[in-house]
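Margin note: ligand = beta-D-glucopyranose.
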Amino acid sequence: MTSFRFTRRGLAVSALALGAIGLTGSKLLKEPDDSLPKTRFPEGFRWGTATSAYQIEGATAVDGRGPSIWDTFARLPGKIRDGTNADIADDHFHLYKEDVALMKALGVKTYRFSIAWPRIFPEGRGTPNPKGLAFYQRLIDELLANDIEPYATLYHWDLPQALQDRGGWQSRDTAQAFADYTAHIVRGLGDKIGRFFTLNEIHAFVDLGYGKGIHAPGLTLAAAQLNQARHHAVLAHGLGVQAARANGRSGLKIGPAENITIALPDVETPQNIRAAEHATRELNAAYLTVMLEGRYTDAYLKEAGADAPRFTDADLKTISTRVDFVGINVYGPGAFVRERSDGSGYAQMKLPASYPHMKSPWLGFAPQALYWAPRMLQKLWAVKEIYITENGTSAADEPDEDGRIDDLDRVMFLRQYLDQLQRAINEGVPVRGYFLWSLLDNFEWADGYETRFGLHYVDYKTQKRTPKLSASFYKKLIERNALV
Ligand code: BGC
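Resulting structure:
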């Protein structure tokens, strides 16, 4: 007899009942068929993984590397949640060959890593340290030998301490020092790397490090100084692009890797979409907007008032030097917005206390961010080449008794986010590649090692790497160039 039952979770139908109406068994339920046509990602889409120097390299005192602001900050009591530092981290400096082999096994064709400025210029500027550059030459050779294209980020938060001692990002000189460092890198490595990112997430490192004081160097500046530090960082980006073009080989490509604050329309009506576009432009006014438009928005300047940064027209021209592509790091929802009922712009909604998030409380689950973020780049600034330079999630990864790490939540996250990325690509948004954060569990800044973002589990006592379930998921996806 067919039996239906309503439970708190919905309609439950007994297996016996399904059998009776013929819905079980091999006749109707087919195995997934690999040969059926699928919605694929574009041919040549670049699948990759991402890391950053300070989070994985370790070897902080090897081969002449100078101290960075993170070495100093991590030693201040109470700054890193588990009291650790990145002196060893993943020991990637020594284990890089093994890590390239992990990438090869995944099937990625691109890798985004960062160069540690204090390895190259231990004092921030002045005399370069050839042994520092030699490490990246070894890494790049290994990548190329494995048919993996290197994409290098020039700055991922590890400012040489010597520059911080002279004012760090509060000093305009740091922007020029960044340009000099960039010139040195493209001269030294530019024959083997064609693509560079300037600064990773200006928004994050300035606001968390100089505003909230929860990242290095741990300052809590007043609004005027904070705005000035932001200005110096976007100026560094522009000067860096110019220095790379002036000193690199022809064909070199360069762009930012910014964590766009993405405003999402709550319900996709034309009005709300307009409101979200408006909000996205304003919420990124001091970062991507000024980089891509060469002006601070009127609303930004008005709101900052006397605290607005001091700048010249020439600065704005430099900041908005043409880039070859734009990289964006996409995690949670920046904001949910709707159009104001009087049509005067946007209203930001409060996130309900019950809104779902991943292991990190800041990482709200919003797959549609990976649809809207690149779409906004195309709509607001007509960007022609877009990279998702980071996307991924923390998870409470624990090996089971067999040593397996079945990170089902990370797989769920990736599947949903990538589905939305595909939606954007299918609509013609020019996304050319995706770098999953991260290849390995690593030093997650102020969270230390407690928070894991990797496709590979790292046992920090032995440095053993173990692929998680998400690594098999990503491998299969890359192999088929389609969601699985
Ligand atoms: C940063 C990474 C960081 C990741 C997860 C990004 O903001 O670029 O360095 O590990 O987010 O928090």
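The radius of gyration is 23 Å.
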